[in-house]
């Protein structure tokens, strides 16, 4: 896992940097400078755009990774890459025609409880297109094993632009409404920078021909749209449904809690950037043993790292909420509920990459569609009486069912299993650490409290995992750093 380890470490650093900037934005600048109403609007618009993204990309971001390694020579690669660039337009054009033809009817149906969103509703498909083509060009660099700078553009660039615009709002140089329109400029800039880098990595020689396997490509892309739609709906649909039943300001509270919980998935997102193309390559070459090894290593390594992040959040959550305005304090329980759903995603390693590169993806997508209906029903059932906590429970139940089905498929159909005895060791360590640190706090300023408590949690957690040899990858990394330290001492 040399290339995996190297690029995963870099991607993890970049992704945590991006989340650090995002944390400042989400927890402090949005809450202090923008206010709950406009913050709720931003959450709604970006979530709705993200839901449209798989359609706007036509599944090309996954299709490109899936079929690129099957190209036998440079000419096939040129035809394939050219086709990937114009293929999304086959859906983008008709979708835009329908959306803007029936704009008022769609807007009324979606946001009748919060009409203040209507002036910004037209931004949703445009931002969705930028997100979609960004993912296409991001996949372009991934297949050339150049994910690090792409990850920087993905995780850091937009957040920096958002931070600048939030300060402009604070200084009175930009209105709150102007900030929402400015989001479009930020996502256009992200897309253009990603496109420029992709063209630098590999400049295409456009071939206006259909690939020899175009039928298979279209079929796979269609199912990827469904798969991506399911994944995005599980992540963002609640923020679109909340305004249908509650005031838009509830979305602000929910977004703060979601952002905190999402940090648990940061290491997974970073590592999977490089694991996806490697998984596709191993499956394409029929290397079952190597794939099993990668599956187990990715699962336990991400469980250990994700577990540390989850404990850091859960054990400091009350102090975190003391750092933001008091009227955002209603989301602590949401952090725990969504955090568990994110952790279940993390401990499955490269499970999703395995499924999407086998013939069984159609069945899993079928179950995914059933789960979308289940999730919609759960949100409609739980949001009216329980508000944002109901939305969180709907997400956790949906994620648990969906991930369990995907795990069962990989075990049953491919004879691959991610869990070992070390999985139980990891859970035991997390349980011990939680009981040791949850029920007490230092009586200092919340920020100092978080720092001091984390300084105790991290060494104990790392020591126990190292001592029990939970993850060979992490132990090897620690041994490597130890040898370098003692050599230079």
How would you sum up the global shape? globular
Poorly predicted spans: none
User: Which percent band covers the strand fraction?
Assistant: under 5%
Number-wise, the strands total 0
Rg, Cα atoms, Å: 22 Å
- H/E element order: HHHHHHHHHHHHHHHHHHHH
What would you say this structure looks like, in words?
There is one protein chain. The chain has 489 residues and is mainly alpha-helical. It is 81% helix and 0% strand. Helix 7 (123-142) runs antiparallel to helix 8 and helix 13 (288-314) runs antiparallel to helix 19. The relative contact order is 0.11. The model has no long low-confidence stretch (mean pLDDT 82).
Summarize the structure.
With 489 residues, the protein is mostly helical.
Task: Summarize the helices and strands and which ones pair or pack.
Elements: H1 2-34, H2 36-57, H3 60-68, H4 74-86, H5 89-101, H6 103-111, H7 123-142, H8 147-170, H9 176-201, H10 214-245, H11 249-262, H12 266-284, H13 288-314, H14 317-321, H15 332-346, H16 351-356, H17 361-414, H18 421-437, H19 446-467, H20 472-488
Helix pairs in contact: 1-8, 1-11, 1-12, 2-7, 2-10, 2-11, 3-4, 3-7, 3-10, 7-8, 7-9, 8-9, 10-17, 11-15, 12-13, 13-15, 13-18, 13-19, 15-17, 18-19
Overview features:
mainly alpha, 0% strand, 489 residues
């Amino acid at each position: 896992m040399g290339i995996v380890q190297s690029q995963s470490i870099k991607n993890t650093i970049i992704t945590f940097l991006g989340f650090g900037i995002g944390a400042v934005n989400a927890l402090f600048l949005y809450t202090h400078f923008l206010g709950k109403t406009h913050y709720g609007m931003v959450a709604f618009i970006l979530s709705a755009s993200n839901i449209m993204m798989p359609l706007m990309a036509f599944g090309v971001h996954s299709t490109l990774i899936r079929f690129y390694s099957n190209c036998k020579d440079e000419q096939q690669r040129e035809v394939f890459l050219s086709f990937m660039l114009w293929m999304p337009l086959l859906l983008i054009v008709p979708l835009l025609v329908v959306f803007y033809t029936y704009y008022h009817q769609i807007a009324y149906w979606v946001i009748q409880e919060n009409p203040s969103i209507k002036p910004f509703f037209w931004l949703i498909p445009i931002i969705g297109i930028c997100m979609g083509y960004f993912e296409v060009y991001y996949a372009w660099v991934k297949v050339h094993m150049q994910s690090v700078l792409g990850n920087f553009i993905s995780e850091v660039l937009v957040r920096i632009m958002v931070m600048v615009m939030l300060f402009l709002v604070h200084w009175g140089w930009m209105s709150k409404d102007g900030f929402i329109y400015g989001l479009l400029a930020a996502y256009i800039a992200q897309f253009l920078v990603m496109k420029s880098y992709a063209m630098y990595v590999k400049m295409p020689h456009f071939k206006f021909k259909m690939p020899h396997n175009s039928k298979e490509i279209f079929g796979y892309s269609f199912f990827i749209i469904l798969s991506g739609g399911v994944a995005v709906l599980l992540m963002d649909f609640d923020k679109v449904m909340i305004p249908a039943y509650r005031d838009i300001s509830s979305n602000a509270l929910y977004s703060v809690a979601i952002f905190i919980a999402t940090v648990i998935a940061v290491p997974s997102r970073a590592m999977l950037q490089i694991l996806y193309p490697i998984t596709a390559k191993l499956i394409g070459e029929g290397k079952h043993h190597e794939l099993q090894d990668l599956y187990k290593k990715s699962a336990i390594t991400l469980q250990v790292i994700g577990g540390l992040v989850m404990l850091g959040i859960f054990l400091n959550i009350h102090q975190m909420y003391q750092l933001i305005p008091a009227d955002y304090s209603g989301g602590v329980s949401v952090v725990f509920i969504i955090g568990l759903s994110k952790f279940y995603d993390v401990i499955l390693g490269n499970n999703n990459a395995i499924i999407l590169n086998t013939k069984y993806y159609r069945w899993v997508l079928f179950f995914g569609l059933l789960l979308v209906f289940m999730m919609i029903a759960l949100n409609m059932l739980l949001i009216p009486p329980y508000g944002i906590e109901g939305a969180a429970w709907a997400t956790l139940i949906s994620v648990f069912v969906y991930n369990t089905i995907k795990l069962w498929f990989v075990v049953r159909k491919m004879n691959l299993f991610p869990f070992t005895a070390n999985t139980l060791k990891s859970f035991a360590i997390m349980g011990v650490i939680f009981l040791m640190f949850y029920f007490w706090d230092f009586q200092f300023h919340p920020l100092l409290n978080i720092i001091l408590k984390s300084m105790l949690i991290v060494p104990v957690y790392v020591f126990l995992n190292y001592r029990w040899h939970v993850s060979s990858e992490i132990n090897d990394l620690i041994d490597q750093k130890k040898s370098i330290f003692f050599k230079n001492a």
